Amino acid sequence: MNSAQQQKVPHAPWWIWPNLLGIDAPIVAVVWQYFFVCNFGLKIPGSNYLTLFSVVWVIYSVDRLLDARMLKRPEGATLRHSFYHRNYRIAFVFTGVLIVFAGLSCLCFLPVELIKTGSFVGAFVVVYLLHQIWAKGPMMMIVPKEVFIGMVFAVGSTLTGHTWSGESILDAFFSPSVILFGVLCSMNCIAISVWERVHDVENDSNALPQLFPQVVKLFPIIACAVFISLIAFSLANHDHVGFPIFVASGMGCGLIAFLSFFDGKASSQFLRFAADMAVMVPALLCLALWL
After folding, report:
1. 171/108 Cα distance (integer angstroms)
2. d(CA 184, CA 186)
3. Average pLDDT of the chain, as a whole number
4. Which fold has domain 14-289?
5. How many CB atoms lie within 10 A of CB 116?
6. How far apart are CA 173 and CA 192, in angstroms?
7. What is the pTM of this model?
8. pLDDT tens figures, 170-213
9. What is the rounded average pLDDT of the residues 235-248?
10. Secondary structure (H, E, C), 143-195
11. Cβ neighbourhood burial of 287 (10 Å; 0-12, 13-18, 19+)
């Protein structure tokens, strides 16, 4: 990279660094894992939180490396992709070390049953990564990649609690608590794709706004409809053990719906940061005030 290119590297505000380093998603995963554990009165070893953090970090780092490698227009990429593109060799080596650490953590700290179930969820991650490399369009022809990512993230983040509680893998996939959390995660991913659509031109043809540009104008309506639906579901199931999770998921979707009206008025960097906070803050509030 020459000096002229270096001068074009945008300044990254302090609050965006967790995203640049790829630790924002692991933090969200650990917070929601703890939220689920507390809500259902479970206890899991502290090492399981560290393992989840490292595994999620590995997945996101590998995804970033693939994205950085396939950038067609690096100068127009998002800050996180530009960061990995500029520091590709260091990120590659670090990710390799992280893979070893995450693998050893799984073998040393997780029960065999959790490793087996986690491997099943991991297969979905592999499908997503292969789709990003070789395919074009929605996952499995019909599912937007943002929805696929959101649901897999929700299942993976809460899998430990379900395994320690002795529930079946079907509960981990289809319990109302996991589904509503998955809806929140999916809305987070869709929102980010909508707000970063300019950066995804030529760089991510599988992003929902690139496949269906109409979603950009419809997103505020969609977000509000999802928010209302989740709140209505929560109120109708106020006596369910997962009620705090329902409420937190609804609150998160409400915050994303609110943020959707600032598209074009606030920077995509800030909106992305705020979208992640919309997922994490409701869980923290429920933990502090409810559980």
Report:
1. 25
2. 5
3. 89
4. Farnesyl Diphosphate Synthase (1.10.600)
5. 12
6. 24
7. 0.92
8. 777 889 999 999 999 999 999 999 999 887 666 577 888 888 99
9. 96
10. ECHHHHHHHHHHHHHHHHHHHHCCCCHHHHHHCHHHHHHHHHHHHHHHHHHHH
11. middle
Rounded CA-CA distance 198/263 in Å is 12
pLDDT category at 6 given cuts 50, 70, 90 is very low
Euclidean distance between CA atoms 238 and 227, whole angstroms = 16
Contacts with 3 (C-beta within 8 Å, 6 or more apart), sequence order:
none
Can you tell me the distance from the alpha carbon of 29 to that of 156, in angstroms, rounded to the nearest whole number?
8
Distances (CA, A) of 46 to 52, 105, 113, 160, 186: 10, 12, 18, 11, 27
- Contact at 8 Å (CB) between 180 and 249? yes
φ/ψ of residue 12, rounded to 5:
-100, 120
With tokens 């906070």, the residue in question is 277
Residue 263 backbone phi and psi in degrees, to 5: -60, 125
pLDDT of residue 211: 87
Distance CA 252, CA 254 (A): 5
Domain boundaries, the chain: 14-289
φ/ψ bin of 265: left (φ > 0), alpha (ψ from -120 to 50), beta (otherwise): alpha
Hey, what are 121's tokens? Answer: 């969820």
The pLDDT score that the predictor gives to residue 146 is 94
* pLDDT at residue 8 is higher than 70: no
Do residues 41 and 49 make contact, with C-beta atoms less than 8 angstroms apart? Answer: no
H/E element, 245: helix 243-260
Higher pLDDT, 248 or 118: 248
Place of tokens 């990995």: 84
